[in-house]
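Translate sequence into structure tokens.
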Amino acid sequence: MAVSWDTATGALTLALCRLPDPPGPSPAAPPGNGGSPGAVQEAVFPAVPEILFSAQGGDGGTHSSELPPLAARAFSETGLKPGDLDAVFAGRGPGSFTGLRTGLSFAKGLAMGAGVPCVGVPTLEALAAAGGPGASGPPRLLAPVLDARHGEIFTALYLAGSSAGPGLDPFRDPAGAGADPPPAPFARGRTPAPEPARSGIPEALTGILVLSPDAFYGALAAALRELAGEGIGLPPGPVTVLGPGSLLLASPPDGFVRGPSAGPDAAAAARAGHARFVLEGAASNPPLPLYGRSPAIFKTWTPPARSPALESPGGHAP
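Result follows.
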């Protein structure tokens, strides 16, 4: 069993699910392989968690006031308890600073109390997993978009479908330190996730991009040209733009199409979190926030003007 939620946006979403059975030997594995790398996991996906409960917060409260009672409701309606959990999955963002801290802190506390791993799931990846074709579908390029406020958006380019695999993952932290990905659009040199293709995880082709809505299509077109120039095979067809931030964009030009504008989905986060947990383990996917940029307060706050009283001798106004 696992519980999953995402608090990166104003729309809290939570799901409680039954995890698939652990991976078994691949049918293609030679006899007597002895469990060496490549002998397991190939046949696991597209097995996905079975969703037992799914709901969104909606009483107008904050995530800190909505998340605990929503989690309690999930356990009550399914007859389960925290001790039945095998893992906790939580959205890492990018998104609201306060929302991410709330969701990740609660996830770590619940996981610690239950004695189970806590796995962080990039919110953009969960959006791509929700809008993508799944592990067995035809390959597609996806660009999930979130509102970053201050006239900007968060996005990244993903490959989803039967040819997608963990690949070069800008969101993976092999050392388990939880550092944000490098700010450059392409995370060259990051450690490839180990195995296998057809994992069900949409493959991140770029890192988190923070753009103005007007610059979105041009920036992604440039990213596609650079990827093609590096010899990375891309599927034919347009890039599907999806997620709530897509509503901030102009009508798509040639090479782009609109997809669903729904927000993060905890059921999709559970699918992506389960795939990461099985393939990479919790240490490579820590429950630490992917902010995407520095807190706004550090960019906008300036010291107030000093009082005239403090400028006169003795600290008294004349």
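Note: The first strand starts at residue 2 and ends at 6.
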